[in-house]
Amino acid sequence: MVDIQKTAVIGCGFVGASSAFAMMKTGIFSELVLLDANHKKAEGEAMDLAHGLPFSRPMEIYAGDYPDLAGCALIVITAGANQKPGETRLELVQRNVAIFRSIIPQIVKYNREAVLLVVSNPVDILTWVAQKLSGLPPRQVLGSGTVLDTARLKYLLSRHLEVDARSVHAVIIGEHGDSELAVWSGANISGVDLSHFCALCGETEHRETMERIYRDVRDSAYEIIERKGATYYGIAAAVARIAQCIVRNEHSVLPVSTNLQGLYGVEDLCMSVPAVVGRDGVEKVLEIELSPEEREDFRQSAETLSGVAKSLGL
Predict the structure, then answer these.
(1) In the chain, N or C: fewer CB atoms in 10 Å?
(2) What are φ and ψ of residue 115, in 5° steps?
(3) Model confidence over 253-289: pLDDT tens digits?
(4) For residue 54, which of 34, 76, 25 has the smallest C-alpha distance?
């Protein structure tokens, strides 16, 4: 029996600690367990977070071990090697697959009912690896996917068009990485087609501007890593948002990484597409309309990931 208000974070690096903080600030959890290969690090992070509870809501925060995962409804996996400056997410794969081979069996030994949220990069490949190693149903294992990329797209579009980012409806799909794509064909500003909105704003170089914004979204992580060594605040906010969808059973639509199982012409591969997210994880994968060009870009993104997945021999 799981407790919907009990969650765990495995991996207490920048991303894990920031995600734990972001989830603490939501006030929706009663218990938060932190795990790390360095137990003292987990203890320190738990202490630091707990000292902020007077400014949040009552909950129990502590460093634990794998047996403490029992009863968790959500387990967030951020453990893994960091992306180095100039290194692609896919280049991380071998190091982080080895780490997952040790982590995932321990998780399912103590808890087979929790939703697993994979955040470690390359997130699409590692979500697929986590599902294969755990033997859990595909709906129960999802990745943070392009939730952050989509937020970056909305932010940059909002700045360019001088509108509230919450009025921007656009999505990044495919790989969370270099082959991701923006679905411009369905983008709109509160129901107004993006191209038409740009025309209303006097935007004359619409295509060139959208291509520049897409490149800025795609390359954001590289730019941040070059400047400060790692990205963690944005992804932490994305993790907290996904966690809220699960705990509150929101049935919200988010572009999480999930096993497509034949949708979009892709079989047994995790990629990011809009999906309904609720208490059971991925409740429904949505096959949205794509332009012929977007469908081809998505196919190429799938080929990129499929080649890596096949090389792992799982």
Answers:
(1) N
(2) -80, 130
(3) 999 999 999 999 999 999 999 999 999 999 999 999 9
(4) 25
pTM, rounded to two decimals: 0.94
CA neighbours within 13 Å on the CB side: how many for 115?
Answer: 28
DSSP readout, 69-137? GTTEEEEEE--SPPPPTT--SGGGHHHHHHHHHHHHHHHHHH-SSSEEEE-SSSHHHHHHHHHHHH---
Catalytic residue among 39, 160, 176, 206: 176
* Amino acid symbol at 311: S
Amino acid occupying residue 309: A
176 included as an active-site residue: yes
Residue 139 reports pLDDT greater than 80? yes
Residue 100 has pLDDT above 70, yes or no: yes
Q: How far apart are CA 171 and CA 191, in angstroms?
A: 14
Nearest alpha carbon to residue 266 among 183, 181, 175, 184? 175
